[in-house]
Amino acid sequence: MNVRTLCLGVLAVAEASGYEIKKEIEEGHFSHFIDASYGSIYPALIQLHAEGLLTVRAEEQTGKPDKKVYGITEAGRRALAKAVSEVPAKDKFRSEFLFQMLMQPLLTPGAMLNAIDKQLRDLNDDLSRIAECQRKEQPHAGGQFVAGYGKAVLTAAVIYLEQKKAELLREAVAPAAE
Amino acid sequence: MNVRTLCLGVLAVAEASGYEIKKEIEEGHFSHFIDASYGSIYPALIQLHAEGLLTVRAEEQTGKPDKKVYGITEAGRRALAKAVSEVPAKDKFRSEFLFQMLMQPLLTPGAMLNAIDKQLRDLNDDLSRIAECQRKEQPHAGGQFVAGYGKAVLTAAVIYLEQKKAELLREAVAPAAE
DNA sequence: CCTCACATGTAATGAGTTACATGATTGG
DNA sequence: CCAATCATGTAACTCATTACATGTGAGG
Fold this sequence. Notes:
The structure is a homodimer.
Chain A lengths: L2 H11 L4 H10 L10 H13 L3 E6 L7 E6 L1 H12 L10 H7 L6 H28 L4 H37 L1
Antiparallel strand pairs in A: 1-2
Chain A binds a DNA duplex (28 and 28 nucleotides) through α3.
């Protein structure tokens, strides 16, 4: 799915400004599987509005810059429903980390452990963010589903990595003792 | 990582033609987390060769078109080692499927089940491909690690989805019986 | 006969990121 | 005073995909 559809998806739940959409993608239910920058969000919103799929309202704020609050129109909802019901391409995990691990002989054991630790931190960050989402929002069906999926997958990864890390540490100590 | 680094990574294990690199990415240890098309592989190989990171050798074949077999040079290995040791950006799962699931209210129950079934097929395909890799190759450390990670994560996803699918089917029957 | 597997490449196009540009207010 | 948060937008650029272009041989 592209940034257009993503914006429609966020706005289908509640109206928001471009800035707030970015925050939602970073911290909400999308955070562990989607990314988008302002450089793609703002142009998408302008375009979607021009096509009549969104409404805009300027909101003045004291102490903060004014913001443009976007809302979805009926045509927007139809466009979103259409996009969502299309059969998507197959998911890929596109993991930089796994590529690194595949190139193990090129890495020092220390670099390996660093990479694994970083991955563990990243995975645990995602898990906390999911927990946080579930804590503060009244759970709707889609959010529950995605949170559960994310938890299951990320937890499996954490368990595997922790086990492998322990193995590596044991191996690093054992030959030194000989 | 980009296609350049990916090609270097494949060639670090064994020499290959552009066509064979693509096959390796589709069917080998990369298959469940990376993608690349000929339109990016061939230009990358030409470029890498011009930079002295690869060697080329034209191989004549009877019954098949000639092929250009690329091999990695020492400079190529250094470039790969450098790229691999750089700290990568955080992994994202970039899942079209999860986006679809997040938009549940827009989907009919039938469409939901179809999407879940498709995802299950895709995940199981990946699992078989990993099993196949492990069966036919003598396992090197990186491959083992990545295969294990893939298995753990994909299996967790399959289990979660199968459970959710069963729940949905029960719900679909229960209200009809009232 | 037609399609698939083998094999290489280019050009048009698309979709996004990064960097730039601007500016107010709050908290350490 | 400096950094961070809030807030919007544009332009240059990167990177890759898709479609096009071409050709052989084997098998159903």
